[in-house]
Amino acid sequence: MAAFSGSQLLLKRQVTVADFFAGDPAGRGGVRVAVKDLDGDSRADLVTGAGDGAGARTDGYLGRTLAPGTTPPPAFAFDPFAAVPGGVYVG
After folding, report:
1. Own/partner pairs for 12-16, CB < 8 Å, 24+ apart?
2. Residue 61 in contact with residue 75, Cβ under 8 Å?
3. Per-residue pLDDT tens over the stretch 31-81
4. How many CB atoms lie within 10 A of CB 25?
5. For residue 24, pLDDT beyond 90
6. With a threshold of 0.85, does the pTM exceed it?
7. How far apart are CA 30 and CA 16, in angstroms?
8. Which residues lie closer than 8 Å to 46 by C-beta, 6 or more apart?
9. Which helix (H) or strand (E) holds 80?
10. DSSP string, 10-34
11. Rounded Cα distance, 87 and 71, in Å
12. Distance from C-alpha of 75 to C-alpha of 87, rounded to nearest angstrom
């Protein structure tokens, strides 16, 4: 998953904020992504949800832990409906 700076995209510059594998490495159904300020620090945080063919695994990553070339630790991770194969939408 690659995340880019929104303010830099507005200036027509592509600046990578983070680039890491989110979700289950064995999964091939993709990852659904949302952006939200989860911790109230006025920075964009990422929420990812498993795509098609997976359970409902949901992970959150804090913006302050995002850096190019690193995999951030999840702020939270849970899978409330692991038996549901359709994935989960976040947002």
Report:
1. 16/68
2. yes
3. 999 999 999 999 999 999 988 887 888 999 999 999 988 999 999 999 888
4. 7
5. no
6. yes
7. 20
8. 1, 3, 18, 22, 33, 34, 35, 60, 61, 63, 66
9. none
10. HTT---EEEE---S-TT--S-EEEE
11. 22
12. 20
Return the structure tokens found at 66.
Answer: 């995002």
Mean pLDDT computed over every residue of the chain: 90
The label of the residue with tokens 């038996």 reads 83
Give the residue from 27, 30, 58, 56 showing the smallest Cα distance to 45: 58
Tens digit of each residue's pLDDT (9 = 90 or more) over 68-90: 889 999 999 998 887 777 888 89
Burial 53-70 (b: 16+ CB within 10 A, else e): ebbbbbbbbbbebbeeee
State the chain's maximal CA–CA distance in angstroms. Answer: 44
Q: What is residue 53's predicted lDDT score, i.e. its pLDDT?
A: 80
